[in-house]
Amino acid sequence: MNPPTLLTQRLSLKPCEVSDYDEVAAMWADEEVVRHIGGNKRSAQDAWFAQLRNRGLWPLLGYGYWIVRERRTDTFVGEVGFADFMRGIEPDISGRPEAGWVIASTAWGKGYASEAVKTAHDWLDEVMPGRSTCIIDADNSASIRVAEKVGYSEIGPTEYRGDPVLLFERYSPGTRKG
With contact defined as beta carbons under 8 Å apart, do 175 and 133 qualify? Predict the structure, then answer.
């Protein structure tokens, strides 16, 4: 599957391209950005590997990650999308879309995360309705608010790589639990 381009009034969500690499790598090297996402900056090579993974999810799973940019200025905002990372956590969340988002610190406080995450979920609800999940660091109140705005509810605590995280789930409108 070729990744679609999604547009909001202020943002574009587009498939990642090689030309996005420098901005993606800079975002993942920012200590403030990664503070609640494992706490470790990514090396330039790890940022590249993640970018390749994010693009490669699409033909394998039918969903993946987008690069988010301001439509008016083409300024880089961040990444948003879905994956199945086969995390091996309990309860097991493999086999379904796991939402994720990361916003460059220069774009914080503008409502871009909520706007991009809502748009991505609107797309998911249309093409693959059902259950999705996300994990969030308990101290990341901003991301918890974004998750709740699009309908996620906390299931409870779990661990990922030995670190505590909160697990959330969401059902597309019109679908039922179970």
Answer: no
Q: How far is CA 154 from the centre of its chain?
A: 17
pLDDT in tens, 91-141: 999 999 999 999 999 999 999 999 999 999 999 999 999 999 999 999 999
Q: Which residues are 101's β-sheet partners? A: 80
Radius of gyration of the chain (CA): 15
Residue-level pLDDT at 39: 67
- The pTM for the full model equals 0.94
Say whether pLDDT at 178 is over 80: no
The Cα–Cα gap between 81 and 77 comes to 13
- For the domain 6-171, what is the CATH code? 3.40.630.30
Q: Do 118 and 5 contact (CB within 8 A), yes or no?
A: no
In 3D space, the residue among 5, 7, 3, 4 whose CA is nearest the CA of residue 115 turns out to be 7
DSSP conformational letter for 8: -
- As a residue count, the chain comes to 178
Q: List Cβ<8 Å contacts ≥24 apart for 37-43.
A: 37/102, 37/137, 38/161, 38/163
> By percentage, how much of the chain surpasses pLDDT 70?
98
